Amino acid sequence: MFEQLELHSDLTRALTDMGFTTPTSIQSTVIPVAMEGRDILASAPTGTGKTAAFLLPAAQFLLDFPREYHGATRILILSPTRELAIQTYEHALEITQHTNIVCGVITGGINYGTDRDTLAKNLDILVATPGRLFEHIEKESFDCRDIELLILDEADRMLDMGFRSIVNQIASEARWRKQSMLFSATLEGPGIAQFSKDILVNPESLTVDPSRKEKAKIHQWYHLADDSQHKYQILKHLLTEQAESAIVFIKTRERLQQLKDRLASDQINVVWLQGEMPQDKRNEAMSRFKSGEIKILLATDVAARGIDVEDISHVINYDMPRTSDVYLHRIGRTGRAGAKGTAISIVEAHDFAMLSRIARYIKEVIKPRVIDELRPKHKAPSIKKPKKSRIAKAKKAAKKSGKPKKKGRGKNITSRKQDG
Ligand code: ADP
Ligand code: MG
Predict the structure, then answer these.
(1) Closest by CA position to 51, among listed 308, 302, 286
(2) What is the reported pTM?
(3) Cα–Cα distance between 85 and 77 in angstroms, integer?
């Protein structure tokens, strides 16, 4: 229950309005520590409510320590992409709706006049993408002097996108801050450890594996396709007969363009997101999809990162991802906090190695399904959960028989990180 977190009643009221009744695990883990003022290094999988995990303590901080004079921004949240920055900003507006906290957002692709109006507002909370914010810092149209709390969201993604140095520079401009928090879907991968050392002081490291309940929401299966023609027919069937709303992932821009044309010739309406798309086009696509006007969004991985659209019933992997991590990111678009979701991969024989790798990585069974009128020529093999290793079995047996267990060895074999 949110009451236990001792948040200001203006915030709990907003949570009620938003339909949030219980905190997710990352929220109940992070919020109390954040409210003590500690630096935080937090990770939890996509879709587990990290945004509110930092917005709530941030808003609480502003309510506990109200401004004494008009001045510059007090809380800075950096987001890797424009879409994500805008979503985080909208989330902040909701959470602060019953307070007089002033929020703003600044991202690339929007004209500088709009930024000037935003920055003129004595913002309490600013959400920004690093590139555009840094331009303002250099032009001295933004002042970091009053920043008390710095939050980096999707830090892993920021590194992927090459923002390390800019973010470090922004952090050093904001050197009078009292607290910093870094959020990431994962703490693995190159660079996060060093990045967090650069930014955080004596952080509390909080990693949350989502509860069973939070995890079990996504149903996953796959369809076997004989060839690309068959693959398309399966997709068409899923989009017209099964999915209420879907994000379809495609490997490259070229393939996305082809697929969109093909769907259009079959009278299936879609919007799409791809890298290097003008901002107004992206916004337009997102708003048509979000409003429910268009139910299908085609996207490449780069373009889709961070988008949070509620109630997507289906995530469809038209092309398999390159790594298991990317798979997790993709399927995280569905079944977000509470809602049930479905993730379907359409695979050809050559995708099987990847599919098995993913199943091992996520430690879940991905079962085949068949559409009656679109049966594949061959029967799809079942991808089973990996069998327990011999050592793990021996350990279990040893435990049962009361023998002391051997230390150390089985460890690598059951370790989660196998690729990606
Ligand atoms: P993450 O950043 O971990 O990927 P988000 O913060 O985007 O996840 O949250 C995912 C979805 O879950 C959002 O639609 C959000 O509104 C919703 N959500 C977050 N916390 C809760 C909660 N405590 N109860 C209900 N829904 C929640
Ligand atoms: Mg997030």
Answers:
(1) 308
(2) 0.64
(3) 8
pLDDT category of residue 399 using cuts at 50, 70 and 90: low
pLDDT-based confidence at 105, cuts 50/70/90? very high
Looking at residue 383, the DSSP 8-state letter turns out to be: B
Query: For residue 127, which ligand has an atom nearest its CA?
Result: 2
Q: How far is the CA of 110 from the centre of ligand 2 (A)?
A: 22
Is 413 inside a domain boundary?
no
Atom of ligand 1 lying closest to residue 22 CA: 23
User: Which DSSP string corresponds to 34-93?
Assistant: HHTT--EEEE--TTS-HHHHHHHHHHHHHHHS--SS--S-SEEEE-SSHHHHHHHHHHHH
Range of the domain at 306: 217-374
**Which atom in ligand 1 lies closest to the alpha carbon of residue 20?**
24
Whether the per-residue pLDDT at 211 is higher than 60: the answer is: no
54 and 110 together in one domain:
yes
Tell whether 294 and 196 lie within a shared domain: no
Query: How high is the mean pLDDT of the chain?
Result: 86
Least confident of 49-58, 114-123, 148-157, 358-367: 358-367
In this structure, the residue with its CA closest to atom 15 of ligand 1 is 49
**Assigned domain for 212 exists:** no
| Strand 271-273 relative to strand 125-128, pairing | unpaired
What single-letter DSSP state applies at residue 152? E
Question: How many whole angstroms separate alpha carbon 333 and alpha carbon 303?
Answer: 13
